[in-house]
Amino acid sequence: MAYDPNNIFARILRGEIPNKTVYEDEHALAFHDINPQTPTHVLVIPKGAYVSFADFSAKASDAEIVGFVRAVGKVARDLGAEEPGYRILANNGADARQEVPHLHVHVFAGTDLGRMIKPAGK
């Protein structure tokens, strides 16, 4: 999947599309998902043009990587999700059903999230 500079997250970063910002710094932007799947559903995106974790880990600077990881943790803490718990999820590629070609992490919280995936063979 190639990076599309006109993807919705790139447009949000450029201020072309409004969002409900939760957190922002020089490396990351976090905002509420427009179609929440749990009571708390926030997306955290790096400000750089990265398609996936593989792309990000290969091309981002150390400062970008540290800043993004810290932003995910800060968002979870600020949302009050440390206790009783939360899930982070990043879909990468077609088989994972990644819809937007810009690295993003979903932070899910606010309810019992159940099993992550079905056990193998079921």
TrEMBL record:
Q: Name one Pfam family in it.
A: HIT
- Catalytic residues identified in the record: H104 (tele-amp-histidine intermediate)
Q: Where in the sequence is the signal peptide annotated?
A: none
Q: Name one GO molecular function term.
A: catalytic activity
Q: Where is this motif: Histidine triad motif?
A: 102-106
**Residue ranges constituting the HIT domain according to the UniProt record:** 8-118
Top-rank taxon: Bacteria
Protein name as catalogued: Histidine triad nucleotide-binding protein
Q: Which organism is it from?
A: Thalassobaculum fulvum
